[in-house]
């Protein structure tokens, strides 16, 4: 199986950390832990995950930090403010442009998110960024297809 690299946004990473039922995001994190895939995040994603866990699931914060430590092959730098300003036309929700741009700059090619409204519902976001953008479930399906 070729090495798969996935850029996780905070919604996908939180789902994997906080899920009590497993779910695709948690399965992807387990695959990263055993080095079958690589998960890449940006500094902003880590900050968002810690802030949201501390607010919504404080008991999961230590576990979340451990997951980030053990599963993440790489934490990439956030794009510069100038880069973000140059790419504001890539999507209608300006607050998510740094995440989209970080995935592009990381050279990953695949962004995993549960934020369908801002990333997936507008197919132009994937077209303009050149990324495959999918939910954790869809990403897991693609990985299963690779191992057939």
For this entry, give a set of tags.
148 residues, globular, 5 strands, 9 helices
Question: Summed up, what is this model?
Answer:
With 148 residues, this protein is of the alpha/beta class. It has 9 helices and 5 strands; from the N terminus they run E-H-H-E-H-H-E-H-H-E-H-H-E-H.
Structural notes for this entry:
The protein contains nine helices and five strands, in the order E-H-H-E-H-H-E-H-H-E-H-H-E-H. With 148 residues, the protein is of the alpha/beta class. Strands 3-2-1-4-5 form a five-stranded parallel sheet. Helix 1 crosses helix 2. The termini are close together. The mean pLDDT is 91.
List the helices and strands and how they pair.
Blueprint (H helix, E strand, L loop, with lengths): L3 E5 L1 H9 L4 H11 L3 E6 H14 L4 H11 E5 L4 H6 L10 H10 L3 E3 L3 H4 L3 H7 L2 E3 L1 H11 L2
Parallel strand pairs: 1-2, 1-4, 2-3, 4-5
